[in-house]
Amino acid sequence: MTVMLEHIKKYYTFVDKTNPLTKILIGLLLFLLVVLMHNPNQLFYLAMIMLVALVVLSGIQLRYLLVMLALFLVFGAFSAMYMVFYGAGTTTLFRFGLIHITEESLIRGIHIMMRGLTLSFFGALVIFTTKLTDVFYSLMIQLRLKPKFAYSFMAAIRMVPIIAGEYMMLRQARKVRKPLIHKRHISGLKGFITTVITLLSQSIRRAYRLGVAMEAKQFDDGPRTYYYQTSFSKYDVLFVEMVIVIAFVSFFLGTEFSLINVTDAR
Amino acid sequence: MAIEIKNLRLKFPETDKRQFSNLNIKINTGEKVLMLGPSGSGKSTLLNLLGGNIPRSMDIPFKADVLDVDTGAAYVFQDPDSQFTMPTVVEELAFILENRSVPQGEMDKKIQDALLKVGLNTDLKMPINNLSGGMKQRLAIASALLQGSGTLLLDEPTSMLDAASVGGLWQTLRNVWTDKTVVIVEHRVNEIWDKVDRVILMNGDGELIMDESPEVIMEHHIGLLNEYGVWHPYSWDYAPVFNKVEPGDETLIEINDMTLERGKETLLNIDNLIIKRGEWLTIEGQNGTGKTSLMLALMKLIKTVGNIHVKGNKVRKTKDIAGTVYPVFQNPELQFITNTVYDEVFINLEMHYPPDEAHEKCEALLRRIGLDHVSHLHPLEISTGQKRRLSVATATGGVPEVMIFDEPTFGLDQKLSYELLKMFYERVEDGVTVIMITHDRGITERYPTRRLILENKAITEVRGDGHA
């Protein structure tokens, strides 16, 4: 994951140096803020500023961001549609069978979509600027997570592409065998079960061998040193300040420069 | 440190028989010892005891009067994919140093030194999954070095590597092992036979039946090695000898203007390749020349440019030729789909014969390849050698006209490899075309009617010694 990112990253910013725990914590607070924000004008500005933050601070090549943005918008539109089509309201804009769009439901739908977008933008910024290993290192160093769990997780993540490759080979192998045997042996539920059993048994054996190898390398839950020194720094302060400023600016803009004449989407 | 075990008794919980009873072994400081034995002799189990994996990580009941082992011993295991914890090269090596509580400031230098010693010339941030098998094993050696142990235990470190990387890996190991106590379990021993101080031979009952210098064994006990089916430097002098083969005239496969690509790069160009009935072909070539890709392309399992005709018909999809042409992949487990060894063979036969005859043939085939005593077991439960034979049996059961094998003798001992070769020869005699991807010069220089050598993105054909 982190490695693939390096290919599409153009530059690094202070967000890359911010402790992963800070980002996760701020993410939680942002979630609360977004849920409690009922003025669509404010939320609109928040989403827009978050988008700018993502583009500027992630350092990811623009064309990848655009593809992702398109996906976010499509998913956002889908989630908004439920609210738009079937929501209650008094000012009817459009009616066709079950579908009943009112001004209230339209605004509520868009409001929900913007909530999703704001969190998606922030989430993308965090993912693009955080190495997974750093998350586990800071969990161990700052939050005293037991190394046993942290390293097991990291090892498990390493296994994912191996299992995926194995699945591809298994499909090829079956494609070759399929015409030779009765299809009841290989299709439907039976085929699915044998696929799962084969992949699982391979993974379990690999995990067991890896466990033995880790302990042979003198890994235990005792005291250890850390290659990556994650800590809290001025960058964390900067990051927190940035998000606070973003929140206040969107409050201000949403109040002073309203785009629509609705202040409560509920 | 010296290692000594006296009067070892060990029994696997699920078996009736003891793996070891009254086993004694002593290995002196700095000695290099090679352990040989047929599969099931307990070599790996013993190796796991010598470094303390038993009982630290493996719960196997045992007793011993003396157990002086090195619980800090460094291992190199056979499977490159199941001995690394972290995603990248530098993080994996740092993991070892972290375990030893080495201060962070000293890590980078130690890591650089270790990589230099094993000749692993790669970006530190390289993901381990992107390394070749040989490079992964070098990384495993580097981590063993960083463990700073005086004992190095090698559990078939080269068995998953191709012939080209094997020599280099042993060279690397020899460069770093001078002051260490080394115990090696390995099938293919050509590269190290004369580099070790002692060779220990175990039999199928877990007894040490010989403990001599390699020179003495070569001079007096070669017969014993053959009897137990373990490889030794002169193994191929005792290999089965077959009659020369006269391939038929009928063209089974014709490939025209085919181009294989990997990413955007051309991997292999084939202008014209004709494969006839009853040929025994080998495909050779360095790693990454496209041997396995050629097999997959032939089966239309990967996209390629060009035409393939099988028995005169153009092949468009895998379905068109599946059954006529049958590939056996390097990892046989992925091709199994039933719950018993018996069914695995039977489901191929039931399509061709009436039930009674299918059962008869199935039993005969299982006896033939020595799997009748495990026919009730799950295919994933049996040993590697047995799995390999089973995959060959399922291929045979489908009555194909062309069989393709990807490294069929990989990791098998001498006895099993020769047995497989006999099976292949019988298929060829019956008019089946056998194609083998193999690195083993013992095979390519003896049996094929034609050798296809992949180099410089093209195929060179050489007449084989097996041709009449």
TrEMBL record, chain A:
A cellular component term, taken from the record's GO annotations: plasma membrane
Instruction: Give the way it sits in the membrane.
Output: Multi-pass membrane protein
Any keyword rRNA-binding? Answer: no
What InterPro entries does this protein map onto?
Answer: ABC/ECF_trnsptr_transmembrane, ECF_transporter_component
What keyword terms does UniProt attach to this protein?
A: Cell membrane, Membrane, Transmembrane, Transmembrane helix
Record's superkingdom? Bacteria
* Family annotation (Pfam families): CbiQ
Q: Where does it localize?
A: Membrane
Membrane-spanning parts = 20-36, 43-60, 66-88, 109-129, 149-170, 237-260
KW Membrane (keyword) present: yes
Record-given protein name: Energy-coupling factor transport system permease protein
Q: Which organism is it from?
A: Lacicoccus qingdaonensis
TrEMBL record, chain B:
Q: Which SMART domains match?
A: AAA
Where does this protein reside within or beyond the cell?
Cell membrane
The protein's UniProt keywords, in alphabetical order, are: ATP-binding, Cell membrane, Membrane, Nucleotide-binding, Translocase, Transport
Per UniProt, what is the membrane topology?
Answer: Peripheral membrane protein
Q: Superkingdom of the source?
A: Bacteria
Tell me, in one coarse class, where this protein mainly resides: membrane
> GO CC terms on record?
ATP-binding cassette (ABC) transporter complex
- Keyword Transport assigned to the entry: answer is yes
The text of the family note is: Belongs to the ABC transporter superfamily.
What name does UniProt use for this protein? Energy-coupling factor transport system ATP-binding protein
The residue stretches assigned to a coiled coil in this entry are none
Could you tell me one molecular function GO term of this UniProt entry? ATP binding
Q: Where is the ABC transporter domain?
A: 3-230, 253-466
Q: Please tell me whether the keyword Electron transport is annotated for this protein.
A: no
Write down the species: Lacicoccus qingdaonensis
